[in-house]
Amino acid sequence: MAANPDVIRARNRLSAQHQRGRKPAPEVEKTLRQNLATEKIAAYVAEVVAAAPPLRPEQRERIVALLTAGGA
């Protein structure tokens, strides 16, 4: 997987909060970690979708249901 610019930006934002021994506020760190996770997932999904054959409507609906239910 090639380096995704959005993942790099999110990682750099998190890293910047820890420079020179600083410790960010817990809510700031949590938000930055969530943003990084979101960008990693989005990059992975985009890569998989680009490599996959076209899906039938019912297959797309199943995937959407998984994503909107949080994978449950």
Describe this structure in words.
The protein is mainly alpha-helical. The chain has one domain (5-68). It has helices at 5-16, 26-51, 57-68. Helix 1 (5-16) packs antiparallel against helix 2 (26-51). It is elongated, with a radius of gyration of 16 Å. The model has no long low-confidence stretch (mean pLDDT 91).
Structural key phrases:
single chain, 72 residues, mainly alpha, 3 helices
SSE diagram, text form:
Blueprint: H1 5-16, H2 26-51, H3 57-68
Helix pairs in contact: 1-2
Q: How would you concisely characterize the structure shown here?
A:
The chain has helices at 5-16, 26-51, 57-68.
Mean pLDDT: 91
Query: Which blocks of ≥5 consecutive residues have pLDDT under 50?
Result: none
Overall radius of gyration: 16 Å
- Please tally the β strands and state the result: 0
Question: Helix amount, in percent?
Answer: 55-70%
**What profile does the largest beta sheet have?**
none
Question: How many domains make up the coordinates?
Answer: 1
What's the tally of helices? 3
Q: How would the global form be characterised?
A: elongated
Query: Which secondary-structure class do the elements indicate?
Result: mainly alpha
Order of helices and strands: HHH
Question: How many angstroms separate the termini?
Answer: 27 Å
Strand content: under 5%
